[in-house]
Amino acid sequence: MRITSQLIRQQATGPLPSLEYLDLSSLDIDYIERLASYKKLQYINLQRNNIQDIYNLECCPQLWSLNLSCNQIQCLDGLSRFLCFGTLILSNNDLSWKELVKIRHIHILNLSLHGNPQLEKDNYYRIHVIDCLPNVWMLDGRIITSAERIQVKNFFQDSALTEHPVRRKLTRDWFVPSTMKHIELTGLFGEKATSLLTKFPVNAVHNIEMDRKRLQYLAYNLQEDLVMEQKATKSKYQYVKYKQTFLEDLLSVRCEEREKCNMLLLLLVVSNTFIALHLYPNSFYKDELHVFIFQQ
């Protein structure tokens, strides 16, 4: 099936000129097209289709959350001009390690790559992804702390001294096309990306305090996603209805009320999982909420 103007009208949940959320999941779509008229799109769900290559997303500069899971994607060229994503779901595709170089520069709060056979068959899958992608905050539902990045760096240094060293998947001197050399100036970024880069400068020091700030921002971003989802799908997230800052509030009091907060968050995970399965095919929230339970 092709994306047509009629299909977009059918799937849209609000006025087309101001459309921010578009669910095109499970429609046997082969090719991404017809999105140029929707400059305000922030959330696009294209999971469970037949997409092999990513095209025509550059016309959506405000794009913040993109779900391309359960397709047949092998090439990431169509993402290379973006500077930031709140959520990027590429799980269950056919990506190779060399494709990750095309998103190495992108700041991604929440990245899902699990279910790509060429990646996951490596025994050091998570270590390699963290090494390849220095600007990812959370991978497959688990936050990447500053301590874990140090561990990954030490892993390769220690491995180099062994008889069978583990080689990096992407070297630091990997060829960079001329079109990508000044991506921080020529890349695409919307309002959410601008806000992120303002609050978290590229050259900021990574330490425990930065981990806490990132976790707080992840909570804020998840709240924003839930509000957007509720507005677009008319789903009934009662905890968002009554207090939109519920996750940030839970994090702020968790040190004093750890057991109670953990139990509440666990209940949220369970209830949210059932809601996601029935009302919203993009069920990545379960993993995101899971992070808030177990992080310090």
UniProtKB/TrEMBL annotation:
UniProt keyword annotation of Ligase present: no
Entry keyword Membrane: yes
InterPro entries: Leu-rich_rpt, LRC72, LRR_dom_sf
Transmembrane segments: 261-280
Keywords assigned: Membrane, Transmembrane, Transmembrane helix
Residues forming coiled coils: none
Organism superkingdom: Eukaryota
A Pfam cross-reference name: LRR_9
This protein's name: Uncharacterized protein
